[in-house]
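Sequence in, structure out. First:
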Amino acid sequence: MPDRLASGADPSTPARPVNNTIGVSAPIVTGFLVQATGNFNLAFIVAGAMLVIVSSATWWRSVPSSRSPPPPNKKRRGSSKRN
């Protein structure tokens, strides 16, 4: 399987379908909240909360874990110069 698809999308990231689903459903949920409450206050609060949650999750996944092992030392044999 190639590392990247022709579109540039990384097939190993499961977040892409979730992001697309949230992007499609956000206006629908906003419409229901505005219709139920009569104003945009709750819609903005929900959108802000989702922004904080998703930003925190993205940051948490992008920071390397301190418990992860260091990368292997790749020394090639015969590559060092001998005097």
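Second:
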Amino acid sequence: MLKAQTDLETIRDLMGHSDISTTAQYLSTDSGRRRKAVESLPNYIGGEVAVNE
């Protein structure tokens, strides 16, 4: 669901967790997803971001 851009609070509700930290225990990201997030930062802060591999 997270890969489909469902927000974390919705995932928490669907999983029946009362605390979002419980939901967070099941989350993981791959390097491609992290890279995409970092590369999108210039859209929010105006400018370029250097990405180290």
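Remark: The two ends are 27 Å apart (CA to CA).
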